Amino acid sequence: MSKVALITGITGQDGAYLAELLLSKGYIVHGIRRRASLFNTDRIDHLYQDPHLPDTRLFLHYGDMTDSSALVRIIQQVQPDEIYNLAAQSHVHVSFEEPEYTANSDALGPLRILEAIRLLGLQKKTRFYQASTSELYGLVRETPQTEATPFYPRSPYGVAKLYAYWITVNYREAYGMYACNGILFNHESPIRGETFVTRKITRALARIKLGLQNCLYLGNLDARRDWGHARDYVEAQWLMLQQDNPEDFVIATGRQYSVRDFVNAAAAELGMALRWEGLGVDEKGYWVDPAAADGARERLVVAVDPRYFRPAEVETLLGDAAKARAKLNWEPRTSFEALVKEMVSEDLAAAQRDELVKGHGYKTMDCHE
Ligand code: NDP
Ligand code: GDR
Question: What is the rounded distance in angstroms from the CA atom of residue 235 to the CA atom of residue 145?
């Protein structure tokens, strides 16, 4: 008998990689998607299976983390062996602008699912994974961060995820549920949302290189993160639900880079060595573009825009995944260099397609967030 999994947030970065992984393991996969005015299933279109065929193993349901009745209906219908709660308003900066909505979807959303499991009498059958985050550490108290490091969130997103973390622990302890938190550090990929800093950088630099965009505006270039690959991290999510006992795990690479390092690595991958000038808000990155119309003129390609500063910043994160290594036998497989290379290569290919479209007189879209 195939196991049945339910993924909230299946249309997001992790949801797409996890759905692919679970299908490859023979699971029947159900996903919750939101109604949108445009198609929002781009990331999972390659996994689509004709629902009219008898051996279909991927099913999508309309629902929302803010809508308890829809969540109960779907869980009752699907009777999942495993629920992966990945859905969230996941943008830290946006959470300062939409704090109440962020709390509703990211804090109360997981509670709604846990309650649905309990009220439907599924607490012995259904295992629950909560997408917890290194943002819980916020103003870090020790480095590197482990499962025992105290939390100090710095954004409405982090605070909402703190509630979600503890309600997951609480339901595990109170009702004996198999519920666990993956405390995942930043993980990226070519299908990372375009407004997160890594993807914003690889996409913009590829477009600048091809003359489709002039400048990349960023916020805090000194922020330091522990960046891994989403493909590796969803494997850890699955492993956490396959153990004898539910536990919480840090998932990280143990290597740390600044945003500026990421810009330099992506630029180097594109053959654009950058020269930096100024400090803080004056900081700018120049590139000597050999193909520039007026000879070897230096072009401004990166500038700081204070609009991207956050009201409270998480300056530095570095994880220690020793527990996951020991108990889950999990290791990150993708290096920082390989991650940057893969992201740049896919964004360059996309920019080349846009160049072709533009060459035929059509307008292409820019992304400024
Ligand atoms: P994405 O932003 O790419 O995906 C979020 C998903 O949640 C999308 O499918 C989105 O739908 C869905 N969603 C958002 N709000 C709702 C809602 N109210 N109801 C139903 N669905 C909703 O995030 P990632 O894939 O990067 O991250 C997955 C999870 O892991 C998130 O919870 C995130 O907070 C957490 N996390 C992520 C890390 C990372 O570095 N990527 C690190 C640590 C934790 P739609 O496509 O319609 O927008
Ligand atoms: P983060 O990721 O906030 O860590 O949350 P993000 O890529 O948004 O920011 C990382 C760091 O880069 C700095 N930064 C910028 N960030 C964005 N988005 N845009 C910019 O122009 C920019 N310039 C500098 C930020 O200030 C920050 O310090 C991600 C999300 O996936 C969360 O859901 C997840 O929980 C955490 O990672 C772990």
Answer: 21
